[in-house]
Design a protein that fits this description.
Helices cover 27% and strands 22% of the residues. The chain is α/β, with parallel strands linked by helices. The chain folds into two domains: 79 residues, 2-Layer Sandwich (Alpha-Beta Plaits), CATH 3.30.70; 266 residues, Rossmann fold. The strands form four sheets. The chain has a seven-stranded parallel beta sheet, with helices on one face. Strands 1, 2, 3, 4, 5 and 10 form a six-stranded antiparallel beta sheet that branches. It has a three-stranded antiparallel beta sheet with strand order 6-18-15, with helices on one face. Strand 8, helix 5 and strand 9 form a beta-alpha-beta unit. Helix 5 packs parallel to helix 8 and helix 8 packs across helix 9.
Length: 405
């Protein structure tokens, strides 16, 4: 990490500039997104984002909610929770009325999960480099991830990068992502980069990239839950999720609560590994903050907490997240934020250097996969064993640490 980038991350006003710009990118991609700012007119005061004119409600509470705010069930998401489309009332007003009469949390926004924004990944924009992957490809056949299925929930996969230059990507499957080499958009290539990190740690693992985050790196809570529900039908050992959300009143997102209760907890060996986010604060970031998820913060190259990472007792482990190197498409990328805003750069080496908890997360997922093939443990068992090891390596003012050998 350069001193210049550290200065940008630590400059309060420049962080607000980055956040403001990222919110603009997201809302341009999905105009139905509403931004809660606590009454401010400044997008840099973003507290959370959600679908305008809709809320999420447990099915058991639908009749009580309908008696307070008019609306219609748009669709059932999974068994236990529905998307409720409001009539003649905005989301914040409806939720305030429900809170007052039924209690806080009975209904919640349809939050927006996002790959980036100050609040998720990446913490930087990609840099064109002529370097080998970091972390390097694991050459130990005893811990190569054989027999393990990893589901990468991201932007999709660029099959053109599974070539001779990137042999670690051979055999990766999933939803194809398209891109224009003349104009690489923000977030494009993110899913392939993340899959590449998993494959470097566990080169024989079966990796499938789910192309869920295709609208400016965002997805509504109601959408990702139904798609995660479908992904579970493939019974993955590990789900790697480099996305998440801040929430109204910092409450757990309702649909993920129901997803755990009705689905994921019944998959005895499957573990969800999720990014802790890049807000530089200790507030919860979801779904990483759930006790049943493995939440991953970022380390810098001096084994300190990275300047951008979220932290706190809800973060389970910290892994390398600064200057990670992996596959990236060649073409022209225009930088969206300081210090290189509006600068067009031609990527020509098939590799990029990137930073964020987005990339700490697949390092931990890949280490879990590698351990599974070595020990025969399930995903949850391998994760628990690695977390025990990480706590033994804990450092003051950092926390539990995991690093590839």
């Amino acid at each position: 990490m350069t001193e210049q980038r550290a200065a940008w991350w630590n400059d309060h006003e420049l962080r607000r500039t980055r956040l403001r710009r990222h919110v603009e990118i997201v809302t341009e991609a999905r105009p139905e997104i509403a931004v809660a700012t606590g009454g401010s007119d400044d997008l840099a005061d973003m507290q959370h984002m959600h679908r305008g004119g809709a809320i999420l409600v447990r099915d058991a509470d639908l009749a009580r909610v309908a008696a307070i705010v008019p609306g219609d069930v748009e669709r059932s998401l999974i068994n236990g929770v529905s998307l409720y489309r409001l009539r003649d009332v905005d989301t914040e007003t409806a939720l305030a009325q429900i809170d007052n009469q039924l209690g806080v949390g009975v209904a919640t926004p349809d939050h927006v999960l996002h790959i980036t924004i100050s609040g998720l990944c990446p913490a930087s924009e990609p840099e064109d480099v002529a370097l080998p992957p970091y972390p390097a490809v694991n050459r130990d056949p005893a811990s190569d991830g054989s027999g393990v299925l990893v589901s990468v929930v991201d932007t999709g996969f660029l099959p053109s990068l599974a070539d001779q230059q990137h042999p670690w990507l051979a055999g990766v499957m999933g939803d194809d992502e398209s891109y224009d080499p003349a104009n690489i958009r923000p977030f494009e290539g993110h899913g392939t980069f993340v899959a590449g990190i998993v494959r470097c740690l566990a080169p024989a693992a079966q990796v499938r990239v789910e192309g869920f985050l295709t609208h400016g790196g965002t997805i509504f809570e109601s959408e990702i839950i139904t798609q995660l529900d479908d992904a579970l039908d493939r019974v993955p050992d590990i789900i790697s999720l480099s996305a998440g959300t801040l929430t109204r009143h910092n409450l757990p997102p309702l649909s993920f609560d129901v997803f755990w209760e009705s689905r994921l907890r019944h998959y005895k060996g499957t573990v969800l590994v999720a990014a802790a986010g890049n807000d530089q604060h200790r507030g919860p970031f979801w779904p990483a903050a759930f006790p049943w998820a493995v939440s991953v913060g970022a380390l810098d190259q001096q084994n300190k907490r990275a300047e951008f990472t979220n932290y706190g007792s809800w973060v389970d482990v910290y892994a390398p997240g600064v200057d990670i190197v992996n596959a990236f498409p060649n073409g022209v990328y225009t930088y969206q934020e300081p210090p290189r805003m509006d600068e067009a750069h031609k990527f020509e080496h098939g590799m990029a250097r990137w930073s964020g908890t987005s990339f700490s997360t697949p390092i931990v997922a890949g280490m879990i996969a590698a351990r599974m093939s070595e020990t025969g443990e399930s995903g949850r068992q391998a994760a628990d064993a690695l977390l025990t090891m990480a706590r033994q390596n804990a450092r003051p003012r950092v926390g539990a640490i995991l690093k590839p050998t």
